[in-house]
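[User]
If only I could read backbone structure tokens as easily as an amino acid sequence. I have put the entry right below:
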Amino acid sequence: MSNFAFNNPAFQQQDPRNVATYPGAPQGAQGAQAASFQHGTMDAAANAQLEGMYAAPPAGAIETDRMSVEDTVWKTAGLFAILLVTAAVGWVWTLGGLERNPYQGVSMMPWIIGALGGFVLAMVITFTSRKKVRPALIFAYAAFEGLFVGGISAFFEAIWPGIVIQATLATVSVVGVTLALFASGKIRASKKATKIFMIAMVGYLVFSLLNLVLMWTGVLPQGQAFGLYSAEIMGIPLGLIIGVLVVIMAAYSLVLDFDQIQQGVRNGAPRKYGWLGAFGIMVTVVWLYVEILRMIAIIRGSN
């Protein structure tokens, strides 16, 4: 498993004997029905009921109270709508200070509040979702993430005008291409690729933490705005090389997200688990956007 948002048995391959391993899982009704067929216990009334069921329109996620891809898509859209609203708040809040006092610079408070709030809520959602899905916490997470995205976007936009639209278009392109390739069946998650992905993720997290510590302690030169990312290898910024690799990692993380959502649907997970699927996609897309934003900033800053 890659995305911590899917740390729930509902998104994992279930025991072929159909043993329930998560709250709300199917309790073997299919097996009981099959047994009734085998023993010839179905009567005329049951046959009539089955005919009526087949003639009725297909039941959706609301009627069945089961997770579906379409319902998860709508939930994802709802979370991103919340993110966009609070992102606008973070944007105005950040740039408002610059307009009032150009010498003071932009405010980093929305960025900091959003990042801390989003991190805490993400941990709470992850560690409590195995027992209960709480949509209200996921809504709050989307709101804090919007504050973070709006704040950091305004901060970068104040330095490099036009960078936000560039990062947004690049993010939408990566997500769109990845989704299209996954839907066509041309790319799929595999155990070997996932193992490589996990090793790369651990390495990247260690590198990011080391870079943060070196910047905070003042070990790195003041001129390196992005720390180790600003270093150059044969004239190419290290941040650009790492950025390309991270974008590929984020794209594969999306593939894993889509695959685990499909697994949840196959498992017959309750409809509320669609919020966890939407939450997982939001985590990956925000990560992808921030990495692309930083990569473009490094490119423009080196010119």
